[in-house]
Amino acid sequence: AAKALGRGTYAEFEPWLEERDRERAQLEADLKTAIQNDEFTLHYQPLYDVELRKTVGFETLVRWHSPIWGVVMPGEFIPLAEDSGLIVALGEWIIRNAIHEASGWAEKERVAINLSPLQMRSPRLLPTITESIEATGIDPDRIELEITENMLMHDSERNVAMLHEFRKMGIRIALDDFGTGYSSLNYLRSFPFDKIKIDKCFVEDIELREDCQAIVRAITQLAAALGMSTVAEGVERESQLQWLRGEGITQIQGYLISYPVNASELSDGRPFNEDRHKWFRLPGTVAD
Ligand code: C2E
Ligand code: MG
Ligand code: MG
Ligand code: MG
């Protein structure tokens, strides 16, 4: 009765909340059939090495092309897929397809794949990855898994053991969205990550903000001292790149280099121009 009253109260003062709940439920229901209906695609965004001045890998970013909702971005549906457990099946689809795709890349760049916490707990994760490696013959050294801090918050012992398992196979592990969660520094001790991805919120106004410059500098130096490389996310301007270069960042990722592009756009670009940095800048429209 208390619950019903609670909902009634909400509906009375904030009718939009009920509307949003309904929409969320519908979105979640549609998401359930989306895998069978083949509504997902993978986009790839270059990871550009600042020293080598070339693209050395691509991050896999999933998109949902819903006949009802249009293109839905992962920020909207990944949390829903997490709540409903659907992320396990979707994540498996993503891993298989991304590795399959990457195994065909002529220049053998790395492929980075985002993992969500629930996936990490699934007994299907390890076999999915080993099966994909065996089926494609890809060098495991080309696979990079991106995890976030919250994965080390719960089930941390089990998850760290899993990360070591991947590491033994030759797979690389990156810590994503660094600096946005809790007690980040402590997590750096829990596993020797290959790479730290500095969240775009620190990069956004780096030219103007001394606090962001200081934070990026500290993270970069800390990473170097720990033997980890760094990636700056969300680099959109040359002036940001200049700052990041000055701080000794290893790689950058962002619209300055390229929007995330789909598999056919990616293959259309081959053979690449010598200056990939320029080639990958798709002027004007967002490729999504
Ligand atoms: P993320 O892993 O931190 O991915 C980076 C996000 O930043 C992507 O958003 C990318 O499109 C966006 N981005 C890249 N360059 C720029 C830039 O220059 N400026 C700005 N403003 N943004 C930029 P996207 O594709 O919407 O993905 C959002 C998040 O959804 C990802 O954040 C990741 O946490 C999650 N996600 C995406 N694909 C997957 C997936 O396959 N599996 C899982 N578990 N999560 C995924
Ligand atoms: Mg990521
Ligand atoms: Mg990130
Ligand atoms: Mg992010």
From TrEMBL:
Residues 24-274 form the EAL domain. It comes from the Bacteria. This is EAL domain-containing protein. It comes from Croceicoccus ponticola.
